[in-house]
Design goal:
Number of helices: 58
Strand order of the largest sheet: 1-2
Shape: globular
Largest sheet: 2 strands, antiparallel
């Protein structure tokens, strides 16, 4: 091999890149024609790495300049026969084009030119810049004068783009054609419409504004990552179809229920009853809801806009004296809140489901209908909303996991291919090296020299390649080496070494940490008002800390060189802080540059350098955000698009019809008149508050245009946010702290603390004069005593599907398991002989061990058995687990011992027997007491007594009044209700689970608290002292700035002496108030008022002005994103990780249920999977048999379902105050449905007779028919009010739940309801704990806030006067609704806001003032506890759904799969012979459910299984089961063990199994059949040939005879 050939090998040629020529086109057409003639079609799929828009992998080699933008043969085998060719641009981006059909030839010069333009990166950049410019100008409310010319220019660019694409791709709708891409359809439509709008004489301006906004979406196809996310989300939408349909189904049902309960109720108002001398009528004869005389007669509460609602029920709101409750006027909220027809009821239910301003509707319904309907709101606002949100989260989580798994498989495949290619190149290089050595030995000196030069060139090439991959050019490194590495003199090096020792000392880092903490404390001390002394101290402290941090930076630069210093990220951050601090000092006197004070907050995050948790979370967050950058860009694009569309759609309407919103014709704060306000409105909608702005949109633009826009923003926006939220949560849940190494500063801090601890121990030992062996502290972490599973590498589905893990744990464990889990103690095949070992009285003590299993395994199971009496049958562990002290004493006496003195020798056997008898009596007493206290009824009784005693305590205290001296001590007594936890195992389980999942997240919670602290300090800098305003005492509104400009002018007003200058109750005057304000913003309660005060603020002692500081909205937007959304993902992710870890540790069982409930869980699972339909025998009578066949047919079931849906539609068309004709029509329809339902019931009774009542569904139908007939007959006998008509309609409506019936309704509904049913035991436990927490807080609230002044959120419905009202209040707070109003009422503690001497009738308590500090602690603590419980509740249900879904997709088999197998087997083997005929095997395999299911045609697969066959061509059940299991789970050692366990379990479960000897197998039988067929065909062919031969011989003889006869005749 010559040197030229070696040089050629050094630069490898492209692999598989071949120019596309005319010969290539001809060969492609020949292959396509040949493929059409062939019957067999190859099952090829496109290579995901070679998709359009992706870069060509480097395994295909370098791209020569001559092949750039030139047609190439497609390297993907899938497209080699698809009439396509490939083009690569300079960035190796893949483009595909069609070679023929509706396009120019690939070799046409015009098309080649357009293709080169299309694939050039600058062309895409030009289009992107044009779109961005267009977006900017679309966001402007009033464009510049040259905007028209710019619009025409951009339109010309878009038109040129379309022409280029049309020529390059061709006019057709197939793949890679112009109209084959939906995004091209969008571009073409918008561009065409713009041309029509510009050149048409008609006025299309309103439509043009909206259509042009679609141009923003052009950003999506220009970014391949964003485009791929759109495809992923579309796939998610397909998977969400079932959930969306189920949600709509429940919304329709609840809307109809709401119509039945509340139709017309919200029009009931307190109307002033006319006096004797008045001639007014009670009703408005004009039918005008805005009739002024009528509205003047309504009763209004103080400060309320709408009239007081009332009801005729005893628990509804009652009118004051002189007023009557009548139905008149319009509905609340300008008529938009009601249940008068189906549309408004559906909107109200959707509002409750999304929990937008639910407290207002909640209060309105309770005022008008009664407090008993609180149950309706609990079901809708809490359980229904929780369940639907969990389903959405579960499906999105599964979709994200699938995408993540697919991406991981692709990455693994690419790495494998890369390693294979690398290994191949290394082998080639080794071979070349060997050849080179041999040539050196044989070649002359000149050749050796040339080969050495080749080696040097190769080494230099590698070095240059490494240098090219560095981040900076080579000249920069030379500059850094000369100027940034200081090694000038020996004295400097000694100084550097000395400074290095000081700065790297552990106590230096400890000192710096203390300085950072002190600096944070100084920053948190700033407040308003602040004394001059405090201000001076803080200023001096700021100077000191700037000096310390500057000194730290200088010393570190000296110790590490500038080059080494700036290589560390934290050092760069420190230098930025120092620079900003020095800039603040030098620019302190410059007006307008005091913004540098805000950058002091960055010093807080210096603490993260010494905080490993902060470092881990920061790195995980950065990594996740980088990975999700395309999704974030897509979300922002949607926000921008929605804001622009809102401005174009409703901007002019808001300005034209502003008089409908404000009497002064001033636009409201939340409108869409300009882009910024529209963006804020869209952001508010995505935060969950949309209904109030929707009402304003109704008043200005109408309902038909507002509802689609709002639904689009809500649905698509929340889909994007939920997907991003889940992606971040899963990233944080899979974060592994072990993979992150601690930095030197954190290690130094730990070392310093260890030294201090050692020194303290040494000093204490000297002081106490004791020699203590102080162990040497090491830097290494101490191993935990418990087993910690590493879950970082697992996905959600893997963590939830723990069968394999549990089996390994069960087999490797040396101790016997005493608890039952789903996959360990339960046999995979149902067996009647299965037994369980249950621990005795595991919940005996009030103080439970957190990990009973670990303690049992450590202490040894056998040793604990040694002391158990065999004869004992007690159920109490106090007696059975260990022998009592008396028994041990008796045993000691009975043992032969050598007496120590004569007294012991005198012990008589009678004395021992008396002591033994006393011990038995005492033991029996203890056993009896133990049985009593462990009885469930006794526990319930004690719990009830505890709760009642707590309530009685409050009742007595409220009657006799509160003592301020004993107030704290009395408040502690309310914790007496916590004793209930010791009585109920279910609550204890939930509390233990909450501690396991939340306590490890405390460190993460502190990180989140640090972020909130930073935002609170920023808020104090921005808004301290600026929320004060001058209020007009007559109107309660703020004075305009042209009347009052500052505080001095306000105080100079004559009539404003009582309220000179008032501050907002929620403000940023100090860090504490800032935290409370941020909490309200985080829960979206009262946040609008806080933001209004912020954007109106002008300065300290200045009167606020309307939106004068409007860009302060950005502060709150930043907090919601950085301070709420991201910390929420961190906390939920860590809680999810802890939940999964402890779930695996507990054996895969739910940690929120008890062991007894675990059995109930398994029972529920069996009931949900088993076929609940009982077989009813077919009657012998022909007439009954005909009816039986009729009512059991599928067509009859479909007809009944259609009737049920039509009946629901008849309820939907009803409305309040409908015409008499409509009432008559609805009545006749109801009669028709009742007749049909009655006929169905009669037919089924004839067919089934007594078996009809064996089904619960039939019983429900029978009850519905009886009530329906009763509802028709009662009005005829005059009993109109005995049963309300709406109640009867709802009973008839209850038949609609047949749609959810398993086997009758859609299967997707059954799959979605299954997680909820399996979640019921855990839901019951969590609900009990929530009730206990609500009970304690309700009692505490009654004691502290019973007589608070009624205003804001405390009114006649929501208050703390009674236990029921307190529970109503706490239910609101549980769903984070309306607690800001309650807290505002409790803030009334001044003489100006409340009356401390007010007499409260019926009690000795005086005053109606609140206690702000107690109120803050009360609500904040309850919100945190409720949030933790609800988050864990979401996690349990979502993981249950993920567990079920993952089992369906994973290649594993559960007990349910085997149970379904045997259910199908019973249908094919009704006699229980354990055999089926081989001819039925194909039908049997097709009748199974996934994953055992085998679709037809499946005979080839079944034959390949080689199943044993007995006499009569019968196959045994076990053989089929084992073969199908192998097909699903594969073959390995673990699976072989599983199959052997299955076989042994089957034999144990079926001891009567008939032994048999298989005579053949399916494969042998098939081979025999094939062989027989071949033999038969060969024999037939042989016989045919023989017969043909004989026939030919006969013909030859006949011919000879004819010839001879002819000759004779001649």
């Amino acid at each position: 091999m010559g040197a030229s050939e070696k040089l050629k090998m050094a630069s490898p040629e492209p692999k598989g890149l071949v120019p596309f020529t005319r010969e290539s086109l001809e060969l492609m057409e020949q292959r396509i024609a040949k493929k059409h003639n062939e019957e067999h079609e190859e099952d090829l799929k496109p290579n995901s790495d070679l998709e359009v828009g992706k870069e060509l992998p480097f395994v295909y080699g370098n791209l020569p300049q001559g092949m750039v933008s030139e047609p190439l043969e497609d390297v993907d085998p899938y497209y080699q026969n698809k009439n396509t060719f490939m083009i690569l641009n300079k960035k190796r981006t893949i483009f595909r084009f069609n070679a023929t059909w509706c396009t120019l030839s690939p070799f046409n010069s015009i098309r080649r030119a357009t293709v080169k333009i299309l694939v050039h990166p600058f062309f895409r950049l030009l289009i992107l810049i044009s779109v961005l410019i267009d977006c900017i100008f679309m966001s402007l409310t009033e464009g510049p004068k040259w905007g028209r010319e710019l619009q025409i220019t951009l339109l010309a660019i878009y038109t040129f783009e379309i022409l280029v694409k049309l020529i390059a791709r061709g006019i057709w709708t197939g793949s890679f054609y112009f109209f084959g891409d939906p995004w091209n359809w969008l571009d073409f439509s918008v561009t065409l419409f713009e041309h029509i709008t510009i050149y048409s004489p008609l006025n299309f301006t309103p439509i043009f504004r909206v259509a042009r906004s679609l141009r923003i979406l052009k950003i999506i196809p220009l970014n391949q990552g964003v485009k791929s996310y759109v495809g992923i989300l579309l796939q998610c939408l397909k998977k969400l179809t079932g959930v969306i349909i189920l949600t709509l189904f429940f919304l329709i049902i609840f809307s109809l229920i709401g119509m039945g309960f509340f139709m017309g109720n919200l029009k009931h108002k307190c109307f002033r009853w006319p006096q004797e001398n008045e001639t007014e009528t009670l009703h408005n004869k004009t039918r005008n809801p805005c009739y002024s005389r009528e509205t003047e007669n309504f009763y209004y509460l103080e400060g309320e806009r709408y009239a007081l609602l009332c009801g005729n029920r005893s628990d509804a709101s009652q009118c004051p004296e002189g007023y009557a409750c009548i139905k008149t006027g319009m509905n609340p909220d300008n008529g938009y809140t009601n249940f008068d027809n189906f549309g408004w009821a559906l909107l109200a239910l959707f509002r409750l489901m999304t929990q937008d301003y639910p407290e207002a509707l909640y209060h309105q319904i309770l005022y008008a209908s009664g407090k008993v309907y609180m149950i309706f709101f609990i079901i809708i606002s809490f359980w229904f909303a929780f369940y639907m949100a969990s389903l959405f989260l579960g499906i999105l989580a599964m979709s994200y996991e699938e995408e993540k798994r697919t991406a991981a498989e692709k990455t693994k495949k690419i790495e494998t291919e890369f390693q294979h290619t690398l290994l191949q190149e290394e082998n080639e290089a080794a071979e070349a090296k060997t050849t080179q050595i041999e040539m050196k030995k044989r070649s002359p000196t000149s050749m050796i020299t040339s080969l050495d030069m080749l080696d040097d060139a190769t080494i230099r090439h590698k070095e240059e390649h490494k240098k090219s991959q560095k981040r900076c050019p080579l000249c920069w490194y030379k500059f850094a080496k000369i100027f940034l590495i200081w090694n000038c003199s020996p004295c400097w090096l000694k100084l550097k070494e000395f400074v290095h020792v000081i700065m790297m000392h552990p106590f230096t880092d400890l000192f710096l940490t203390i300085c950072i903490i002190l600096n944070i404390y100084f920053l948190a001390m700033e407040c308003y008002p602040m004394s001059a002394t405090t201000s001076n101290v803080l200023s001096i402290g700021n100077l000191v800390f700037i000096g310390i941090f500057t000194t730290e930076m200088i010393f570190k630069i000296i110790a590490m060189h500038p080059y080494g210093y700036f290589q560390v990220g934290w050092n760069i951050y420190d230098s930025i802080i120092v620079f900003l601090g020095l800039a603040e000092l030098f620019l302190a006197n410059v007006h307008g540059l005091d913004v540098f004070r805000l950058f002091r907050v960055l010093r807080i995050f210096k603490l993260g350098k010494y905080w490993p948790t902060f470092e881990i979370l920061k790195l995980t967050l950065i990594k996740s955000l980088v990975a999700l950058k395309d999704l974030i860009l897509l979300l922002y694009t949607f926000l921008f698009f929605s804001a622009v569309v809102g401005t174009k759609l409703f901007g002019l309407s808001y300005k034209a019809y502003v008089y409908n919103l404000d009497k002064d014709c001033q636009l409201p704060r939340w409108h869409m008149g300009d882009f910024f306000h529209s963006f804020l409105n869209v952001f508010r909608i995505l935060c969950g508050e949309w209904v109030e702005t929707l009402w304003d949109c109704f008043d200005t633009a109408g309902q038909f245009s507002c509802v689609p826009f709002y639904m689009m923003v809500i649905l698509i926006g929340n889909l994007l946010i939920l997907y991003l939220f889940l992606a971040l949560v899963i990233s944080f849940s899979s974060c592994n702290a072990a993979t992150h190494a601690e930095n030197e500063e954190a290690k130094n801090l730990q070392c310093a603390m260890a030294r201090i601890k050692k020194g303290i121990c040494y000093v204490l030992s000297k002081i106490l004069c004791k020699r203590l062996n102080v162990p040497k502290d090491t830097v290494d972490n101490v191993n935990d005593t418990h087993v910690k599973e590493n879950i970082s590498g697992h996905t959600l589905s893997e963590l939830s599907n723990t069968e394999d893990v549990l089996k390994d744990k069960g087999k490797s464990s040396g101790t016997e398991k005493t608890t039952v889990t789903e996959n360990e103690s339960e046999s995979l095949i149902p067996s009647p002989s299965a037994s369980e070992t249950v621990p005795i009285a595991s919940g005996e003590s009030d103080i439970e061990n957190l990990d009973n299993k670990e303690i049992q395994s450590k202490s040894g199971y056998g040793s604990s058995k040694e002391k158990v009496k065999p004869s004992s049958s007690s159920e109490c562990s106090t007696v059975d687990i260990a022998i009592s002290e008396e028994e041990e004493m008796i045993n000691e006496h009975e043992k032969p011992k050598h007496p120590k003195n004569s007294y012991e020798r005198r012990s008589s056997p009678g004395q021992i027997s008396r002591e033994s008898k006393r011990g038995k009596i005492w033991r029996n007493i203890r056993k009896t007491c133990c049985k009593i206290v462990e009885n469930s009824f006794f526990k319930c009784f004690i719990g009830l007594v505890t709760l009642l005693s707590t309530g009685a305590l409050v009742f007595c205290l409220n009657l006799i009044g509160k003592s301020q001296e004993l107030k704290l001590l009395t408040s502690i007594k309310f914790l007496r209700a916590l004793r209930v936890l010791s009585q109920f195992e279910r609550m204890k389980v939930v509390v233990r689970a909450l501690m396991k999942t939340t306590l490890p997240a405390l460190n993460v919670f502190l990180v989140c608290l640090m972020i909130w602290l930073a935002y609170s300090i920023i808020g104090v800098h921005l808004f301290a002292g600026t929320f004060y305003e001058c209020i007009d005492p007559t109107s309660g509104e703020r004075f305009p700035t042209y009347e009052v400009r500052n505080r001095s002018e306000c105080e100079s007003l004559v009539f404003n002496e009582s309220m000179p200058w008032e501050n907002a109750k929620l403000n940023f005057d100090n860090v504490g108030n800032g935290f409370l304000s941020l909490l309200q913003v985080a829960t979206f309660n009262g946040w609008i008022d806080i933001m209004n005060s912020a954007v109106d603020s002008t300065g300290v002692h200045m009167q606020p002005d309307f939106e004068v500081n409007i860009y302060m909205y950005c502060y709150f937007i930043g907090f919601i994103i950085i301070g709420l959304f991201l910390p929420l993902t961190m906390l939920v992710g860590v809680i999810l990780a802890n939940f999964n870890k402890h779930k695996i540790k507990e054996g895969g069982s739910n940690i929120f249920i008890t062991e007894k409930q675990e059995k109930q869980y398994l029972t529920l699972k069996k009931l949900m999977y088993e076929d609940s339909r009982k077989t009813i025998p077919c009657p012998g009578n022909k007439f009954r048999r005909f009816i039986f066949d009729l009512v059991t047919s599928q067509a009859f079931n479909i007809i009944i379902m259609v009737l049920i849906c039509f009946q629901a539609i008849t309820l939907m068309i009803q409305s309040d105050e409908q015409s008499r004709q409509m009432d008559t029509a609805v009545l006749w329809l109801q009669i028709l449905f009742i007749i049909l339902y009655t006929g169905e019931c009669v037919l089924k009774l004839i067919a089934f007779r007594c078996n009809y009542f064996t089904s619960g569904w039939n019983v429900l139908d029978f009850i519905v028919v009886i009530f329906s007939i009763t509802g028709l007959l009662l009005p005829l006998i005059g009993e109109y009010y005995l049963v309300p008509p709406s109640f009867l309609q709802l009973i008839v409506l209850s038949r609609i739940i047949h749609i959810l019936r398993p086997g009758k309704g859609p299967k997707v509904f059954h799959d979605l309801l299954l997680p909820l049913v399996l979640f019921l035991p855990a839901l019951l436990n969590i609900s009990l704990l929530i009730f206990l927490v609500m009970f304690i807080y309700a009692i505490f609230g009654m004691y502290n806030f019973a007589y608070v002044k009624k205003e804001a959120g405390i009114n006649d419905v929501s208050n703390f006067e009674t236990f029921g009202s307190s529970m109503l209040c706490l239910f609101q707070v549980t769903i984070f609704a309306g607690w800001d109003g309650m807290l505002n009422a409790i803030f009334n503690s001044k003489w100006s806001d409340c009356d401390p001497d007010k007499i409260n009738p019926g009690t000795q308590v005086r005053g109606d003032c609140g206690n702000p500090i107690v109120g803050i602690i009360y609500f904040v603590s309850y919100i945190l506890i409720a949030w933790l419980i609800i988050v864990n509740m979401y996690i349990v249900l979502v993981m249950e759904f993920v567990n079920i879904a993952s089992k369906k997709t994973a290649k594993t088999l559960s007990e349910d799969d085997f149970r379904k197998f045997f259910q199908v087997w019973r249908r094919f083997d009704p006699d229980g012979t354990q055999y089926i005929d081989s001819s039925k095997l194909s039908d049997f395999a097709a009748a199974l459910d996934a994953p055992l299911f085998m679709a037809k045609p499946n005979k080839g697969q079944l034959v390949a299984m080689d199943l044993p066959m007995a006499v009569g061509d019968r196959i045994h059940c076990l053989d089929i089961l084992l073969a199908f299991t192998k097909r699903v789970v594969g073959k390995d050692v673990r699976m072989e063990k599983l199959l052997s366990e299955m076989e042994s379990g089957f034999i144990l479960a079926n001891p009567f199994k008939i032994t048999y000897e298989p005579i053949t197998t399916t494969l042998k039988r098939k081979q025999e059949a094939v062989s027989a067929t071949i033999i038969q065909r060969a024999y037939k062919s042989y016989r045919l040939r023989q017969s043909d031969k004989k026939t030919s011989d006969i013909h030859m003889i006949d011919d000879d005879r004819e010839v001879q006869a002819t000759k004779e005749d001649a």
